[in-house]
Amino acid sequence: MKPENKFRETGCPVAFGLDTFGDRWSLLIIREIMLRGKKTYSEFMEADEGFATNILIARLKHLEAAGIIVKSRDPDNRRSFIYTLTKKGHDLAPLMLEIIIWSGEHDNRPFAMKNVLQKIQNDRESFEASLRTA
Length: 134
Fold this sequence. Notes:
- With 134 residues, the chain is mainly alpha-helical.
- The mean pLDDT is 88.
- The chain has helices at 13-21, 24-36, 41-45, 53-65, 87-90, 93-106, 115-122, 124-133, and strands at 69-74, 77-85.
- It has eight helices and two strands, in the order ααααββαααα.
- Strands 1-2 form a two-stranded antiparallel ribbon.
- The radius of gyration is 15 Å and the shape is globular.
- The protein starts with 12 loop residues before the first helix and ends with a helix.
- The chain is 57% helix and 11% strand.
């Protein structure tokens, strides 16, 4: 992953997006916040994909520097931090929906999770609105 101040100089919007949020771990952190309501480092560590601590720390710092998430002290535990999406982070909701839809159509593995796809198909507008306010 490129450091937060190292963006490709091509001006390509796809390259900019990939430099900002486009690696596996960054998208999984965004998913954890947006879809699963997770907010703390320890909650992210419980993700099924198994974040390595150094990767999680690096991605949280990168997403914060990119303005996708904001870090604040947990009012209930002053030794802990809470990570939340910014407006810029919430604006990734349509992208997350499209990834879910694409995966739902193409992931034929027997254990593929299809429940979120069904919610989107039933009422995409409401589902997207809920992601933007989570």
